[in-house]
Please model this.
Amino acid sequence: MDANGWETVGDLGRFDPDGYLFLADRRNDLIIPGGANIYPTEVELALTAHPAVTEAVVIGLPDLGQRTHVLVQLDSPAGIDAETLDRFARERIVRYKCPRSYEFVDGPLRDDAGKVRRSKLIAERQRG
Model:
């Protein structure tokens, strides 16, 4: 508990002038590539706006800080590649938040409980 009586579970957010709390993401999921903060949820929302994308999960991989990497499950892979999705993302979010690498997956990106286990996904990619 901090000096103001608050206890944290790792969620990041802000209060607006009217006192409403807006949650951004989890502290452990925050990606910091060279000093900028990237919230995975913002990037995921931009990518899942594409009609061919079923789901997208953004993770930070080690690379002189962190590199934004996205795992993408497509509804229909016809004509969709990393370059197409990158152009799509750049129309919706600022350049430094765009993924540096894309990985297309066939299976679901969530566990049986419907949760994204980012730490597990990162560990799998670090093992090779």
Q: What stands out?
A: The mean pLDDT is 84. The helical segments are 40-48, 82-90, 118-127. The first strand starts at residue 11 and ends at 15.
